[in-house]
Amino acid sequence: xxxxxxxxxxxxxxxxxxxxxxxxxxxxxxxxxxxxxxxxxxxxxxxxxxxxxxxxxxxxxxxxxxxxxxxxxxxxxxxxxx
Amino acid sequence: xxxxxxxxxxxxxxxxxxxxxxxxxxxxxxxxxxxxxxxxxxxxxxxxxxxxxxxxxxxxxxxxxxxxxxxxxxxxxxxxxxxxxxxxxxxxxxxxxxxxxxxxxxxxxxxxxxxxxxxxxxxxxxxxxxxxxxxxxxxxxxxxxxxxxxxxxxxxxxxxxxxxxxxxxxxxxxxxxxxxxxxxxxxxxxxxxxxxxxxxxxxxxxxxxxxxxxxxxxxxxxxxxxxxxxxxxxxxxxxxxxxxxxxxxxxxxxxxxxxxxxxxxxxxxxxxxxxxxxxxxxxxxxxxxxxxxxxxxxxxxxxxxxxxxxxxxxxxxxxxxxxxxxxxxxxxxxxxxxxxxxxxxxxxxxxxxxxxxxxxxxxxxxxxxxxxxxxxxxxxxxxxxxxxxxxxxxxxxxxxxxxxxxxxxxxxxxxxxxxxxxxxxxxxxxxxxxxxxxxxxxxxxxxxxxxxxxxxxxxxxxxxxxxxxxxxxxxxxxxxxxxxxxxxxxxxxxxxxxxxxxxxxxxxxxxxxxxxxxxxxxxxxxxxxxxxxxxxxxxxxxxxxxxxxxxxxxxxxxxxxxxxxxxxxxxxxxxxxxxxxxxxxxxxxxxxxxxxxxxxxxxxxxxxxxxxxxxxxxxxxxxxxxxxxxxxxxxxxxxxxxxxxxxxxxxxxxxxxxxxxxxxxxxxxxxxxxxxxxxxxxxxxxxxxxxxxxxxxxxxxxxxxxxxxxxxxxxxxxxxxxxxxxxxxxxxxxxxxxxxxxxxxxxxxx
Lengths: 82, 750
Fold this sequence. Notes:
Chain A is 20% helix and 29% strand. By secondary structure, chain A is α+β, with helices and mostly antiparallel strands. The longest helix of chain A has 11 residues, at 28-38.
C-alpha cells in the first residue's frame, strides 16, 4: 500500500533532501513508525504534535486509521485555533 | 443565500430562537468564574515580577507568613522537579523558577482569609533580583547581538547560524517562484509590522480550586476548555488527571486566550498547602494584560508578482513573529493562511518563531491569519492601485475553488470564496459614492477550521424532551446551535432540548471551544448520538408492532411504518416512547466520541469605508461589510454575531490596540483606559452577508464561523486609509499620530 507523504521543505534536512516521500504503510500508525524508523531526525517534529491532511481532509492523527492506496498525505505542525 | 446542491428544507435550522442561556446572562443570574464561592474559601493573590528579565536570587516570605489570616504561600519550590519539554514551559510560565522572563511573570502566590490580606502579604514578600538585559521588539530580538532570552531555546528545526532567540523555523512552498516572478509584469515587495494585541475578553481569568493531600481535587474555572485545564494542571503538579474534576463556569469571552493555564495550578498548590481549603484567585485587568497571552507581534516581508491583467504569478513571504519568552507564536498558521485564498503557480513561505521578554503568546481568534492577511492583502491592494485594477475582480480571477491545491499543499474540497467575493461585489456598500478624505478598502481572509477530539451524550427524559451533554463551553451561542441541530434531528421543538456543558468527569476528553469547532464538532457528534437513540426507539417500536426494525422509520418526532408492506400502524410519538421507557428496556441514551473529521474551510471578504481627518489623523469607520461563507448558518443571529465580533476585534487591532513598553521593558498601558479597544460608539453598524456553501462533510453543512472574521479588517482598513490619503501605512496600529506623520512625511510607519 504506497502513499505519498509531503513534508515542509524545512524538514528536508532530515529526509535526505526529499520533501515528497513514497512509503509503504497501511495505517497512520504504521506510517508514523516508518517515518521514525527511516528518518530518525523527524522524531522531534513528530513528537511535537502534528496535524494531517489525507487527500485534502485536515484532521488530528488517528494511528488506527487505514490509508487509501495512493493517498496524498501532508504532515503539518499541530494546528492551533482561537 | 444558499448555494447548495444539497439544499433541503429545515424546520428548525436557520431560525432565530432566543438562546437558552440568554435570560440568565442579561439579568446577572449566570455564574461566571469570579461568582463561585465555597465554605471556608481562601482568597489568593500573586506576586509578579517588576522586571522584564531578571535572575531571582532569593525569596523571603517570613514577614508575609506572619500576617494574621495568611494560610499558605507557594513559590516554585512547591512544584515538582524533573519536568521537561512543553510541560516545563507551562510550569515556567505559571510560576518563575531561576529567572523572571517578563514584566508580570508570577514569582509567588499567597492564600489568605481575605483578598486584602492576601494582597498585603504579597507586598511583604522580599525578592532579591539581579536585573538582566531584555529585548522586546521582534526585529531586535532576531539580531545576533540581542540579549538572549533563554539559553538553548532553539528546537530541531532552527538552521545553524540563527540568533539564539529563534525558537523554531519553518519553510515550505510549491512551484518555482523565480520563474513566476520572471513571468510577472509587476513585482512588488514590502515590509509590514503588527503589534501584539490582547484577546480583550471582558471577564478576567478566575478560578476556585480545592486539592487534598491525596491528590484528589476539584476546580471551577472560567475557561474555553476544561479538559485542557485538567491535563495541564495535572502535568505541572504531578497529579493523576482523573482525580481532578474541573467544572467550567460561564465564560465572558476567551478568543483563544482561555485555552491554557495561568493561575489555576497556583490555586491548587495553595489549596493543598493550606490543608485542602478552597482557594479562589481572580485576576485584575492589569494582571490579565501583563501576564496572560496576547497574540504575537510580527514583522513580515512580502513579494508578489502579477500580470498586467491581474493574474498572480508568484509569491514569497518571510514572517518573523515573537511569541514571548517561551515561543509558540502562530507563525506556522500565519504562513498557511498567507496565500490560501489564491490559486498561484508558485509560492514560498519562510517563518521564524522568536523569543522576547514578553508574556507567552496564547491563541487569538484565527491565530496568525490576521497578520498574514495584513501583509499579503495590503500588498495586493497596492498592486491593484498601481495597475488600476478592481480589487474584487483581481481576487475573483485568482480565487481558489474546489479541487485546487492550497498554498500549503492539501487540495480544497467544496469551498465558497468565489461566492463570497461575488456577494461583496453585488452589495450596495461597494458602490456608495465617497467624499473628500474618504476611502474604501477590500480584503479577503481565511481560516482552515478544526474538528478535534469530541465526546457528547444524549438522553431522553420520561416526557420525551431531550438532554444533550457536551464538553465545549458556550462562548458564542453554541447551546442554541446544538439545540437547533438536535431538534432538527429528532423533529421535536427547540424548547424541548436542553444542552448542558458537563464537567470533566461526565464525558470523555473534549478539546476546548477553539478552532471554530464547537458547532461543527459537537453538532456532528450530537447528530450521531441522537441517531443512536432514534435507532433504539425504532427497535422498541418494531418489537411492539412485531415487525422488523428496518421496517420502522423516524419522521419528524414519530416512529412510523416504513411503507405499506410494514403494516398498518399508527405513528408513535417520541413522547409516548419516552413515557414507556421503563417498561420497554430502560433508559434510552446515546453517546459519541471521536476525533471529528469533515472540517470545512472558511473564507471571508470585508469592505471598509473610512474617513481620515487630515488635521488630527483620526480615522472614522463610516460603514463596514462582512461577507463570509458559513457553510450553513444554524442560528443566523449568532453567525452574524460572530462575523461582527471578529470584525470589531480586527478593527481594534488595526486602529488602536498595541502593547506599549517602556525602555525598561515594562508594559506601560496595562489598563483598558490606555489599551484602547473599540466600543460601540466608535463603530458603525457592521453589515453582514451570510454566504452558504454547505460543507458536504457535515450533516447540516456547517463550516465554523468564529475566526475568519478577524483576518480581513486589518488590511481592509489599511487599504481604505491608503485610498483616503494616498499614503500607505504598513505598520499597525494606525494610531492618529502615525496617520498624521504618514500624511505629512509619507512614512509607512515601519
